[in-house]
Design goal:
This protein is an alpha/beta fold. It has two domains: 116 residues, no CATH class; 177 residues, Vaccinia Virus protein VP39 (Rossmann fold, 3-Layer(aba) Sandwich), CATH 3.40.50.150. It is built from eleven helices and 14 strands. The strands form three sheets. Strands 2, 3, 4, 5, 6, 7, 13 and 14 form an eight-stranded mixed β-sheet that branches. It has a four-stranded mixed β-sheet with strand order 1-12-9-8.
Amino acid sequence: MAIFRNKISEMSQFLKDVYAGLSSEPKTLSSKYFYDEVGDDLFVKIMNMPEYYLTNCEFEIFSEQSSSIISAFNMKEEFDLIELGAGDGTKTIQLLKALNGSIQYQYSPVDISENALEGLKARLNKELPSVKVAKQQGEYFEVLGRIKSVQKPKVVLFLGSNIGNLEDADAKNFISLLSDSLNIGDKLLIGIDLIKSSSIVLPAYNDGQGYTRDFNLNLLDRINRELDADIEIKNFKHVPSYTSEEGIARSHIESLCDQTFHIAGKQFNLVKGEQIRTEISRKYNDEIMEDIINGSGLKVINKFTDNKNYFADYLLEKR
Protein backbone atom coordinates (compact mmCIF):
# COMPACT_ATOMS: atom_id res chain seq x y z
CA MET A 1 0.00 0.00 0.00
CA ALA A 2 2.81 2.42 0.86
CA ILE A 3 4.48 1.69 -2.50
CA PHE A 4 1.19 2.42 -4.30
CA ARG A 5 0.77 5.73 -2.43
CA ASN A 6 4.30 6.73 -3.42
CA LYS A 7 3.51 5.88 -7.03
CA ILE A 8 0.37 8.05 -6.88
CA SER A 9 2.35 11.00 -5.50
CA GLU A 10 4.77 10.80 -8.42
CA MET A 11 2.03 10.70 -11.07
CA SER A 12 1.46 13.40 -13.61
CA GLN A 13 -1.64 15.52 -13.10
CA PHE A 14 -3.01 14.01 -16.31
CA LEU A 15 -2.78 10.50 -14.88
CA LYS A 16 -4.24 11.56 -11.53
CA ASP A 17 -7.21 13.16 -13.27
CA VAL A 18 -7.78 10.13 -15.50
CA TYR A 19 -7.67 7.78 -12.52
CA ALA A 20 -10.08 9.98 -10.56
CA GLY A 21 -12.49 10.39 -13.48
CA LEU A 22 -12.63 6.71 -14.40
CA SER A 23 -13.05 5.75 -10.74
CA SER A 24 -16.06 8.05 -10.27
CA GLU A 25 -19.72 7.31 -10.92
CA PRO A 26 -20.66 8.28 -13.53
CA LYS A 27 -17.28 8.09 -15.20
CA THR A 28 -15.75 11.26 -16.64
CA LEU A 29 -12.65 12.47 -18.47
CA SER A 30 -11.71 16.16 -18.43
CA SER A 31 -12.18 18.03 -21.71
CA LYS A 32 -9.00 20.03 -21.05
CA TYR A 33 -7.01 16.96 -22.12
CA PHE A 34 -8.49 17.03 -25.63
CA TYR A 35 -5.77 19.44 -26.68
CA ASP A 36 -2.60 17.62 -27.59
CA GLU A 37 -1.08 18.15 -31.05
CA VAL A 38 -3.58 15.79 -32.70
CA GLY A 39 -6.49 17.32 -30.77
CA ASP A 40 -5.41 20.85 -31.72
CA ASP A 41 -5.43 19.92 -35.42
CA LEU A 42 -8.81 18.22 -35.16
CA PHE A 43 -10.35 21.17 -33.35
CA VAL A 44 -9.22 23.53 -36.10
CA LYS A 45 -11.03 21.24 -38.55
CA ILE A 46 -14.12 21.26 -36.32
CA MET A 47 -14.14 25.05 -36.19
CA ASN A 48 -14.02 25.19 -39.99
CA MET A 49 -16.81 22.71 -40.70
CA PRO A 50 -20.23 24.09 -41.78
CA GLU A 51 -22.12 22.46 -38.89
CA TYR A 52 -20.00 24.21 -36.27
CA TYR A 53 -21.88 27.51 -36.36
CA LEU A 54 -20.16 28.88 -33.23
CA THR A 55 -16.97 29.88 -35.06
CA ASN A 56 -18.75 31.49 -37.99
CA CYS A 57 -21.15 33.41 -35.76
CA GLU A 58 -18.43 34.82 -33.51
CA PHE A 59 -16.20 35.48 -36.52
CA GLU A 60 -19.06 37.50 -38.00
CA ILE A 61 -19.30 39.56 -34.80
CA PHE A 62 -15.58 40.33 -34.86
CA SER A 63 -15.49 40.96 -38.60
CA GLU A 64 -18.44 43.36 -38.66
CA GLN A 65 -18.39 44.91 -35.18
CA SER A 66 -14.74 45.20 -34.15
CA SER A 67 -14.84 49.00 -34.23
CA SER A 68 -17.88 49.02 -31.94
CA ILE A 69 -16.23 46.52 -29.60
CA ILE A 70 -13.04 48.61 -29.42
CA SER A 71 -15.08 51.74 -28.77
CA ALA A 72 -16.88 49.94 -25.93
CA PHE A 73 -13.51 49.00 -24.39
CA ASN A 74 -13.11 52.76 -23.83
CA MET A 75 -9.33 52.50 -23.39
CA LYS A 76 -7.61 55.89 -23.22
CA GLU A 77 -4.07 54.63 -22.62
CA GLU A 78 -1.83 51.66 -23.42
CA PHE A 79 -3.40 48.42 -22.22
CA ASP A 80 -2.89 44.66 -22.11
CA LEU A 81 -5.18 42.52 -24.27
CA ILE A 82 -5.15 39.06 -22.69
CA GLU A 83 -6.85 36.13 -24.40
CA LEU A 84 -7.62 32.98 -22.40
CA GLY A 85 -7.60 29.83 -24.55
CA ALA A 86 -6.37 31.70 -27.60
CA GLY A 87 -6.26 28.71 -29.97
CA ASP A 88 -5.40 29.68 -33.55
CA GLY A 89 -6.60 33.30 -33.10
CA THR A 90 -8.76 33.40 -36.25
CA LYS A 91 -11.45 35.60 -34.68
CA THR A 92 -9.10 37.67 -32.55
CA ILE A 93 -6.99 38.67 -35.55
CA GLN A 94 -10.03 40.62 -36.83
CA LEU A 95 -9.98 42.62 -33.61
CA LEU A 96 -6.20 43.08 -33.74
CA LYS A 97 -6.42 44.41 -37.29
CA ALA A 98 -8.99 46.98 -36.17
CA LEU A 99 -6.83 47.93 -33.17
CA ASN A 100 -3.63 48.20 -35.16
CA GLY A 101 -2.48 51.78 -35.59
CA SER A 102 -4.79 53.16 -32.91
CA ILE A 103 -4.04 53.00 -29.17
CA GLN A 104 -0.96 51.05 -28.07
CA TYR A 105 -1.48 47.60 -26.59
CA GLN A 106 0.27 44.30 -25.93
CA TYR A 107 -1.45 41.08 -26.93
CA SER A 108 -0.95 38.17 -24.50
CA PRO A 109 -2.45 34.90 -25.74
CA VAL A 110 -2.81 32.32 -22.95
CA ASP A 111 -3.20 28.62 -23.72
CA ILE A 112 -2.41 25.30 -22.08
CA SER A 113 -1.10 24.11 -25.46
CA GLU A 114 2.39 25.34 -26.36
CA ASN A 115 1.81 23.95 -29.85
CA ALA A 116 -1.23 26.23 -30.32
CA LEU A 117 0.66 29.25 -29.01
CA GLU A 118 3.62 28.70 -31.33
CA GLY A 119 1.26 28.39 -34.30
CA LEU A 120 -0.57 31.58 -33.32
CA LYS A 121 2.63 33.56 -32.84
CA ALA A 122 3.94 32.42 -36.23
CA ARG A 123 0.67 33.49 -37.85
CA LEU A 124 0.74 36.91 -36.17
CA ASN A 125 4.37 37.45 -37.15
CA LYS A 126 3.31 36.89 -40.76
CA GLU A 127 -0.03 38.75 -40.82
CA LEU A 128 0.48 41.48 -38.19
CA PRO A 129 4.23 41.78 -37.58
CA SER A 130 3.87 45.11 -35.75
CA VAL A 131 1.73 43.63 -32.93
CA LYS A 132 3.59 43.13 -29.65
CA VAL A 133 2.96 39.51 -28.64
CA ALA A 134 3.79 38.03 -25.22
CA LYS A 135 2.53 34.44 -25.29
CA GLN A 136 1.78 32.82 -21.95
CA GLN A 137 1.69 29.03 -21.66
CA GLY A 138 -0.15 27.64 -18.64
CA GLU A 139 -3.40 27.45 -16.69
CA TYR A 140 -5.55 30.59 -16.83
CA PHE A 141 -5.38 31.62 -13.19
CA GLU A 142 -1.68 30.85 -12.90
CA VAL A 143 -1.06 33.35 -15.70
CA LEU A 144 -3.61 35.90 -14.48
CA GLY A 145 -2.05 35.74 -11.02
CA ARG A 146 1.29 36.70 -12.53
CA ILE A 147 -0.10 39.72 -14.35
CA LYS A 148 -2.64 41.04 -11.82
CA SER A 149 -0.04 43.37 -10.33
CA VAL A 150 0.61 45.00 -13.71
CA GLN A 151 -0.84 48.49 -13.43
CA LYS A 152 -1.77 48.90 -17.06
CA PRO A 153 -5.50 48.57 -17.81
CA LYS A 154 -6.50 45.10 -18.98
CA VAL A 155 -9.06 43.66 -21.36
CA VAL A 156 -9.47 39.90 -21.02
CA LEU A 157 -10.93 37.90 -23.91
CA PHE A 158 -12.61 34.55 -23.19
CA LEU A 159 -14.14 33.62 -26.52
CA GLY A 160 -15.66 30.62 -28.29
CA SER A 161 -18.15 29.87 -25.48
CA ASN A 162 -15.37 28.12 -23.57
CA ILE A 163 -17.18 28.92 -20.33
CA GLY A 164 -19.93 26.61 -21.58
CA ASN A 165 -17.63 23.67 -20.81
CA LEU A 166 -18.29 24.26 -17.11
CA GLU A 167 -21.26 23.25 -14.98
CA ASP A 168 -23.20 26.33 -13.84
CA ALA A 169 -21.79 26.26 -10.28
CA ASP A 170 -18.25 25.89 -11.64
CA ALA A 171 -18.84 28.67 -14.18
CA LYS A 172 -20.03 30.97 -11.39
CA ASN A 173 -16.90 30.16 -9.38
CA PHE A 174 -14.72 30.64 -12.47
CA ILE A 175 -16.18 34.10 -13.11
CA SER A 176 -15.67 35.04 -9.46
CA LEU A 177 -12.01 33.94 -9.59
CA LEU A 178 -11.55 35.75 -12.89
CA SER A 179 -13.01 38.92 -11.37
CA ASP A 180 -10.56 38.61 -8.46
CA SER A 181 -7.73 38.69 -11.01
CA LEU A 182 -8.94 42.03 -12.42
CA ASN A 183 -8.60 45.58 -11.16
CA ILE A 184 -11.39 48.13 -11.05
CA GLY A 185 -12.18 49.32 -14.58
CA ASP A 186 -10.70 46.25 -16.30
CA LYS A 187 -12.92 44.61 -18.90
CA LEU A 188 -13.89 41.04 -19.80
CA LEU A 189 -15.25 40.14 -23.25
CA ILE A 190 -16.83 36.71 -23.00
CA GLY A 191 -18.23 34.66 -25.87
CA ILE A 192 -21.50 32.86 -25.13
CA ASP A 193 -23.43 30.35 -27.24
CA LEU A 194 -27.14 31.10 -26.99
CA ILE A 195 -29.91 28.53 -26.45
CA LYS A 196 -31.31 27.26 -29.76
CA SER A 197 -33.16 24.26 -31.18
CA SER A 198 -31.49 20.85 -31.28
CA SER A 199 -31.63 20.84 -35.09
CA ILE A 200 -29.05 23.65 -35.04
CA VAL A 201 -26.98 22.67 -32.01
CA LEU A 202 -26.64 18.89 -32.24
CA PRO A 203 -24.93 18.70 -35.67
CA ALA A 204 -22.15 20.92 -34.29
CA TYR A 205 -21.22 18.02 -32.00
CA ASN A 206 -21.87 15.22 -34.50
CA ASP A 207 -20.66 16.43 -37.91
CA GLY A 208 -20.96 14.37 -41.06
CA GLN A 209 -17.19 14.16 -41.60
CA GLY A 210 -16.61 12.64 -38.16
CA TYR A 211 -14.22 15.29 -36.84
CA THR A 212 -16.06 15.63 -33.52
CA ARG A 213 -16.11 11.84 -33.19
CA ASP A 214 -12.36 11.66 -33.83
CA PHE A 215 -11.75 14.60 -31.48
CA ASN A 216 -13.62 12.82 -28.68
CA LEU A 217 -11.99 9.43 -29.24
CA ASN A 218 -8.52 11.00 -29.57
CA LEU A 219 -8.67 11.49 -25.81
CA LEU A 220 -8.47 7.70 -25.46
CA ASP A 221 -5.64 7.61 -28.01
CA ARG A 222 -3.79 10.23 -25.97
CA ILE A 223 -4.20 8.14 -22.81
CA ASN A 224 -2.71 5.18 -24.70
CA ARG A 225 0.19 7.26 -26.01
CA GLU A 226 1.10 9.11 -22.85
CA LEU A 227 -0.06 6.95 -19.95
CA ASP A 228 1.02 3.43 -20.94
CA ALA A 229 -2.55 2.23 -21.54
CA ASP A 230 -4.00 -0.59 -23.65
CA ILE A 231 -7.44 0.81 -24.48
CA GLU A 232 -9.03 -0.65 -27.65
CA ILE A 233 -10.46 2.42 -29.38
CA LYS A 234 -12.65 0.26 -31.63
CA ASN A 235 -14.59 -0.75 -28.51
CA PHE A 236 -15.99 2.77 -28.06
CA LYS A 237 -18.26 5.16 -29.93
CA HIS A 238 -18.92 8.90 -29.76
CA VAL A 239 -22.37 9.80 -28.35
CA PRO A 240 -23.57 13.45 -28.35
CA SER A 241 -26.86 14.69 -26.86
CA TYR A 242 -28.77 18.00 -26.50
CA THR A 243 -32.24 19.33 -25.74
CA SER A 244 -33.19 23.00 -25.98
CA GLU A 245 -35.25 22.65 -22.78
CA GLU A 246 -32.12 21.88 -20.76
CA GLY A 247 -29.79 23.97 -22.93
CA ILE A 248 -26.73 21.76 -22.39
CA ALA A 249 -24.95 19.75 -25.11
CA ARG A 250 -23.07 16.71 -23.83
CA SER A 251 -20.45 14.43 -25.37
CA HIS A 252 -19.89 10.90 -24.13
CA ILE A 253 -17.72 7.96 -25.08
CA GLU A 254 -19.80 4.78 -24.86
CA SER A 255 -18.49 1.26 -24.37
CA LEU A 256 -19.65 -1.08 -27.15
CA CYS A 257 -19.02 -4.22 -25.08
CA ASP A 258 -18.03 -5.50 -21.66
CA GLN A 259 -14.33 -4.75 -21.49
CA THR A 260 -11.23 -4.45 -19.34
CA PHE A 261 -8.22 -2.21 -19.95
CA HIS A 262 -5.20 -0.94 -18.03
CA ILE A 263 -3.75 2.53 -17.55
CA ALA A 264 -0.24 2.67 -16.04
CA GLY A 265 -0.86 -0.73 -14.51
CA LYS A 266 -4.27 0.02 -13.00
CA GLN A 267 -7.24 -2.03 -14.25
CA PHE A 268 -10.59 -0.55 -15.27
CA ASN A 269 -13.77 -2.42 -16.19
CA LEU A 270 -16.68 -1.16 -18.29
CA VAL A 271 -19.92 -2.88 -19.18
CA LYS A 272 -21.62 -2.64 -22.56
CA GLY A 273 -23.50 0.67 -22.87
CA GLU A 274 -21.61 2.37 -20.02
CA GLN A 275 -20.69 5.96 -20.84
CA ILE A 276 -17.77 8.22 -20.00
CA ARG A 277 -18.68 11.91 -20.09
CA THR A 278 -15.99 13.96 -21.79
CA GLU A 279 -17.55 17.38 -22.31
CA ILE A 280 -20.52 19.61 -21.66
CA SER A 281 -21.38 22.76 -23.59
CA ARG A 282 -23.86 24.99 -21.79
CA LYS A 283 -25.98 27.33 -23.91
CA TYR A 284 -27.03 30.63 -22.35
CA ASN A 285 -29.60 33.39 -22.33
CA ASP A 286 -29.48 36.76 -20.55
CA GLU A 287 -31.09 35.35 -17.40
CA ILE A 288 -28.58 32.50 -17.04
CA MET A 289 -25.72 34.90 -17.77
CA GLU A 290 -26.84 37.35 -15.08
CA ASP A 291 -27.07 34.50 -12.57
CA ILE A 292 -23.53 33.36 -13.42
CA ILE A 293 -22.01 36.81 -12.82
CA ASN A 294 -24.19 37.74 -9.83
CA GLY A 295 -21.99 38.64 -6.86
CA SER A 296 -18.75 38.63 -8.89
CA GLY A 297 -18.27 42.40 -9.04
CA LEU A 298 -18.65 42.28 -12.81
CA LYS A 299 -21.42 44.09 -14.68
CA VAL A 300 -22.61 43.67 -18.26
CA ILE A 301 -22.05 46.97 -20.09
CA ASN A 302 -22.62 45.84 -23.70
CA LYS A 303 -23.66 42.86 -25.80
CA PHE A 304 -22.81 42.02 -29.41
CA THR A 305 -24.70 39.36 -31.38
CA ASP A 306 -24.50 37.86 -34.86
CA ASN A 307 -27.24 38.45 -37.42
CA LYS A 308 -29.02 35.17 -36.59
CA ASN A 309 -28.83 35.79 -32.83
CA TYR A 310 -27.15 32.40 -32.37
CA PHE A 311 -24.16 33.74 -30.44
CA ALA A 312 -23.29 36.70 -28.20
CA ASP A 313 -20.16 38.41 -26.92
CA TYR A 314 -20.88 40.11 -23.61
CA LEU A 315 -18.64 42.95 -22.44
CA LEU A 316 -18.31 43.09 -18.65
CA GLU A 317 -16.53 45.62 -16.46
CA LYS A 318 -15.02 45.19 -13.00
CA ARG A 319 -16.77 47.61 -10.64
